[in-house]
## 1
Amino acid sequence: MDVVGQVVTAVRTGLPFARRRELYGTWGLRFHGDHGAGFHVVLEGSAWIVPPTVSTPVKLGVGDVVFVGHTDGYTVAGHPDTPLQDVRMVDPREQLPVPTPRPGERPDTVLLGGRFALELARPHPLLAQLPRVIHIPARATVGEPLRFVVDLLGAEVQRDEPDNLGGALPALLDLLIIYTLRSWYAREAEHGAQGWARALQDPAVRTALENIQQSPATPWTVAQLAATAGVSRTAFARRFHTLIGEPPLTYLTRWRMTVAAQLLRETNLPVESIAARVGYGSPFAFGKAFKRSMGNAPGAYRRASQHDSR
């Protein structure tokens, strides 16, 4: 798995969910911000989205993908001037306040909409640096994996029962987010963007990120990371810090804590085992580092995560 895929998998909490919605007549939805990211795919018809803090609506067509991260709220409607109904996307079975169809009526718009819960104790910079709303038009994904994932999702949600969240859907939703972020960062790099967009295209920095994320328990040094990337230590350290926003070993600690948090949420492994998996020989040293990074001791973090997942 690449850098983006590893980050998405590590910071997701619980399974993503989505539901196919058939929309008729005059409809407008105001989604309130919460602790996750929202996403929408237009399967049929069209819609308009108004991002937070932006007054200009954006028209969405068939195959368009919208990702809304760390949002303060946004609206999706059949027309920009449509009166809005409040929605909180926290349950896949939530009924939307929209008009019901007349017998035999075809939907004006079919949307795949859902939510992707994220670890927020210490947001990963790959996601924290994203704009509030990412819109990727269908025409920009012709021949790309993202288009194939959108097509597969459309077929899957049409085949499944409305409340069936099993099968291939969670895996396809993960792929939707991964390919959306890959596509957006690649296009940003083409337009000269720096930061993570440039880092993912820089061979030396990308290689170092891959090594850190694939082997967090390795006692990496800056010199070792530079050697695996094939550049001098000084040049590597400067490029990494400039693009990632923090020194290589600071990012190593960040990633170790990210992986540890995932293991605490998703497994019953003892803290000692988790400490070893992320490069700490002492549970005490790991506990101090984890609390400094995440705000809670490992045990308290695990209990809070289990409570939130109920």
## 2
Amino acid sequence: MSAEIGPINVFLADVKTRVDAHLTRFFEQKREHARSLSEPSVELCDALCDFTMRGGKRTRPAILIAGHLAVNPDADLGRLLDACAGLELLQSYLLVHDDWMDQDDERRGGTTLHKLFATRLQQQHLGASIAILAGDLGNAFAIELVARSATLSPHYTAALEVFWTMQRDVVYGQALDLIAYNDVALIQRLKTGSYSVKGPLLLGAVLAGADAEQRAALERYAEPAGLAFQVRDDLLGTFGAPEKTGKPAGNDLRAGKRTALIEEAERRLSESELAPVYAVLGEADADDAAVRAAMELLERSGARAAVEARIEHLNAEAQAALQAASWSELGRRRLEQLAKMFAYRDH
């Protein structure tokens, strides 16, 4: 992987190529083991493999690598590939479970695993149960890979503590999201910021031997950068183009998610004025016309513009945090590029 500072899209493509190749080799090994057990074990492993490899930008591995480079720009990045692949399997585990909880039919442009297995087995509950186990298998693989990577570092215990904290926080955040808890910022910080930005960033930095000052500065960067990532996710979950997000427009409305958009709309409108939004919020079978009406109201009310402004502020805060500690130029530039990408991505 080149040490030169080039465009972020080139860096991301390079990371994706390396991580995908590593994941492919890993799944080949796991498939051989599954074959020694039973054909259903192979099917479970294959389903997780297909789900993991069908999409994903490999952003979390890129964040891990950027955090590592910020501390040690001369590192052998090949030694990080296990941890990078582990983050992608952690993501697969969380997405498989999230899809079932939200009763989504599509993910990354394909069928969600609970729907896939329900169709294959002709039993909805059994199919969902097998899908959940596929997610659990992803988590087991993630732990194996991250632990294997951490053994190559003298900072083994600290690295595992970062990984455990990441997993714990996202579970708390998902639980709060499911019950539509009224602190949206807390949900965003726990559910997405923890494992989308802060966790991968600290994991990479700790594996490189980050000192206390560097870790503190990275946390100050990760908080607004992670929130910007999640708030942009809120916008994409309602207004994102289906051909880019892999989900229908207005998906978060049908799922009943209390996003930053809903929070902003409630600040601006009365309960009666919000009727078109509440009519579809949490209604999985809401028709397209009703969802479009809710989306138009979120636009007219100024909620969408307010969320965009918040993202702008969060990005500026993240960029400012990078000036608070000593970094390699390569790592700092990569972190600047990543924060901007989190804030302004379109999928």
